[in-house]
Design a protein that fits this description.
heterodimer; A: 206 residues; mainly alpha; B: 600 residues; FAD/NAD(P)-binding domain; 8-stranded mixed sheet; 17 helices; 21 strands; globular
Chain lengths: 206, 600
């Protein structure tokens, strides 16, 4: 992150969400104009990040992204961590896509990852990936909810919100994530019988 | 007769049909099954849902987790090929730069057109819907009545397979016994809305959709649809037996490899091809209809999109079924000494009175639906219930500030997760992350509800299309320029929609995501966004003020028909596809009869 950008992020008291969302300028390190999958892609092939357009993040940024993914979605009894399912690569795929709106997300995420490391060094003198859980949470607590973030964290909060949404979308679309959230469909059934009795009971409709 | 290339066309056909969607599919089906030799032109590529449909693919295997993009506006797995509100190389223009006066024109360049991806909602127009002007003095009456169309609704419902109920509510027709297939049971959120909606006067009833909830009765339906035509009966019975009942997985918008829902490519075209009377020419972009010295249409000039070469096909009858706006474009581009303003346009009405559907929506979250026991809510790949327009009496009594009705469509349930699942939850969670976020994601999944209104737009003088004076597409064909304006009837209706949805969400014990807008112009979707564009070649009682008669036959050229949504003179809240098919079948019956009599 260059100094000018860093200063801009520090002085975000006046920044508004609206300004941020309209910001369509390409990020530093943005890939050259890439092509999308076209209007007639093969729908039967399985794709992974990087298959259609080149990715953006370098090794350091990816490591920070993976660490943040796991702060947002760690392993628990019902499912593995986000980075173990390569959700950080989906984030990279998303911010690298050549479609409308993605350039703004690229700028937000690339700058946000840089800011996260700077903030980490400022507070704890080491990069974000090397922080222990309590230190990571100390930073994330300041940016996890935009309406309550202090003015100096407004832009960080905007970044975190986007990153959390991407992490969730990437995670819950994997087989493990679908199981974790409780999706049990996508199987052929002989009949559709509607909600089972225990569901109707809980709704007061039994 | 099969899918062919330009070099394989016959010297002449009985009927040339331009377009292969709901209108083209139905017209070609009816003509071919009754022995007419038919050539179908389709501007897009061949498309085979049996081989190409992503059944059971999950979003994790798609680019961007399947999220919509400019190139796949309904998501990666949506069946649309080479289509959307923008088609590369095939622009259209807008007469105004005002954002509120834009029209978004959706096209799908593929065999079967938009029927491959549509929502399959199949509602009949009611008796009021054909005589709107008689009821409130606005717009136009149709030159036909519900009774004229009802037998064709019966036939189409039996042919394509439609599930639904017969509640007999006002202006919401019932189908005769044995015509509809049984509706699937309501999902949890739909059941809750049904129970709570009652208390605020909303009748939540089974919706009608073109999905086989059970297998069709291939033993009896063919004889009902094609009496005294043993060959058509045999061909249709075979085609029906090749369709499977829904197995309650895979969203309908992807298309259906097992043919359990209606799309032209799995329902209309296979039997029409099996009759031996249909040739299909794909990648054939119709440019103009040619006119003979006798004043009759005698063929179609098209661009072979593979070679770029111009081709000509000849026929005794020409049917435009290219989508209402595309058919307008073809007519306006078919200029001759007799029709300098475009073919069949002596009235000057070609392109006038285009309509879309009024659309507005509102979402919320319902605590009662949190943490429900895990269960499968995929269902029929679309809604199981809806609310038909319910305020006829209030409207007649002058208690509403808009003239026409809308119905409510439902989005509820534990749907297959996509890129947006568990995103934007911070208004509920206060910004949780970590293990708490995972608990929140499980808790709120399935508790988010959304309601969408689909309402009637009244035709007006400010909504029309003409040819852009300078812009051409990549084939050198002049493109359409759209003029658009909602009236207060539509914007006020959109505001009423949002207010109603807020009340419904609150009746379920939920809270709205954002408050309803009192300003309907903020609530309403842009014109064309609902993809129900109709009008532009309206039917009417005389040649002076309309383009076709009640048979979709142009007044000016008796062997030229338009069977897409173009002849619609109103756009009831009932989604147009079922009515397009019913009118296309009716038109084709008339066309065949006139052909036999030598009148064309």
């Amino acid at each position: 992150m260059d100094r000018r950008t860093a200063i801009k992020w520090m002085l975000t008291a006046a920044a508004t969400i609206a300004v941020l969302e309209r910001d369509g300028v390409a990020a530093e390190g943005a890939p050259a104009a890439a092509k999308g999958y076209g209007t007639d892609p093969d729908l039967l092939k399985a794709y992974k990040p990087g298959d259609v357009w080149p990715l953006t993040l370098d090794a350091t940024q990816l490591a920070t992204a993976a660490a943040l993914c796991d702060v947002i979605i760690p392993a628990d009894a019902k499912g593995p961590s986000a980075s173990s399912l390569n959700v950080h690569l989906f984030v990279d795929e998303w911010i690298s896509a050549p479609y409308d709106g993605h350039a703004a997300d690229r700028k937000l995420v690339v700058e946000g990852l840089g800011w996260l490391d700077e903030e980490s060094r400022r507070r704890f003198q080491i990069p974000f990936v090397n922080l222990i859980a309590g230190q990571r949470n100390a930073i994330c607590d300041d940016i996890c909810y935009a309406p309550k973030a202090q003015p100096q964290f407004a832009k960080g909060a905007q970044f975190f919100k986007k990153f959390r949404d991407l992490t969730a979308g990437g995670y819950y679309t994997t087989p493990e994530g679908m199981k974790d959230i409780g999706y049990v469909g996508n199987v052929p059934l002989a009949s559709f019988d509607g909600p089972p009795p225990e569901v109707l009971k809980q709704l007061g409709l039994a | 007769m099969p899918l062919i290339t330009s070099s394989k066309t016959q010297p002449s056909y009985d009927v040339i049909v331009v377009g292969s969607g709901a209108a083209g599919g139905q017209t070609a089906y009816t003509c071919a099954m009754n022995g007419a030799k038919v050539l179908m032109l389709e501007a897009g590529r061949n498309y085979d849902p049996v081989k190409e449909t992503p059944m059971f693919q999950t979003n994790g295997t798609a680019p961007l987790r399947g999220e919509r993009t400019d190139e796949k506006p309904f998501g990666f797995y949506d069946s649309t090929v080479d289509g959307g509100w923008q088609v590369p190389g095939e622009p259209y223009t807008s007469a105004s730069s005002d954002p509120e006066r834009q029209f978004w024109w959706w096209r799908a360049r593929m065999l079967g057109g938009r029927t491959n991806h549509w929502g399959r909602i199949s509602l009949r127009n009611g008796p009021y819907d054909f005589k709107p002007r008689s009821r409130d003095g606005l717009g136009f009456d149709w030159p036909l009545a519900y009774e004229d169309v009802a037998p064709y609704y019966d036939k189409v419902e039996m042919l394509v397979g439609v599930y639904g109920g017969n509640e007999g509510l006002e202006n919401t027709p019932v189908s005769p016994p044995g015509v509809l297939l049984p509706p699937p049971k309501a999902r949890a959120g739909e059941r809750l809305a049904q129970e709570r909606g009652k208390k605020i006067g909303l009748p939540v009833i089974p919706i009608h959709r073109a999905v086989l909830s059970v297998a069709q009765d291939a033993n009896t339906i063919p004889a009902k649809l094609h009496p005294n035509n043993p060959k058509a009966q045999r061909v249709l019975a075979d085609a029906m037996r090749a369709r499977q009942a829904c197995f309650w997985a895979t969203a309908c918008g992807r298309g259906c490899a097992t043919k359990a829902n209606y799309q032209s490519t799995t329902v209309h075209l296979p039997p029409a091809l099996a009759s031996g009377n249909l040739d299909i020419l794909t990648n054939a972009m119709a440019r103009e209809v040619t006119l003979g010295a006798d004043g009759k249409a005698n063929g179609v000039i098209y661009i072979d999109k593979v070679t770029g070469a111009e081709g000509v096909v000849k026929g005794r009858v020409v049917v435009l079924a290219a989508s209402s706006a595309e058919s307008v474009r073809i007519l306006l581009n078919s200029k001759s000494a007799k029709f300098p303003q475009g073919l069949a346009n002596s009235s000057g009405k070609v392109g006038k009175y285009i309509m879309d559907t009024v659309g507005a929506s509102l979402g919320g979250q319902v605590p009662l639906l949190e943490n429900l026991p895990l269960h499968n809510e995929d269902g029929a790949g679309g809604g199981h219930v809806y609310v038909p327009w319910w305020l006829y009496k209030e409207q007649a009594a002058g208690k509403l500030d808009f003239a026409r009705g809308y119905h409510i469509e439902f989005g509820t349930g534990r749907q297959m997760p996509g890129a947006g699942t568990a995103s934007g939850l911070d208004w509920l969670t206060g910004g949780s992350y970590g293990r708490k976020f995972k608990e929140d994601a499980r808790r709120y999944y399935g508790s988010i509800v959304g309601f969408a209104g689909r309402g009637e737009m009244i035709p007006n003088e400010d909504s029309f299309c003409d040819l852009d004076p300078s812009v051409k597409d990549k084939w050198g064909i002049p493109v359409l320029r759209f003029h658009w304006k909602w009236s207060d009837h539509e914007t006020r209706q959109a505001a009423h929609m949002q207010k109603t949805f807020a009340a419904l969400i609150e009746s379920m014990g939920g809270r709205v995501r954002t408050p309803p807008s009192a300003d309907g112009s903020k609530a309403i979707e842009p014109g064309g966004k609902i993809i129900h564009e109709v009008g532009g070649t309206i039917m009417g009682p005389d040649a002076k003020n309309s383009v076709t008669n009640q048979w979709c036959q142009t007044w000016d050229v008796k062997n030229l028909f338009i069977t897409d949504g173009g002849p619609f003179v109103s756009n009831a809240d009932k989604n147009p596809t079922l009515t397009i098919m019913a009118l296309a079948w009716r038109s084709a019956d008339y066309l065949l009869d006139e052909l036999k009599k030598g009148n064309l």
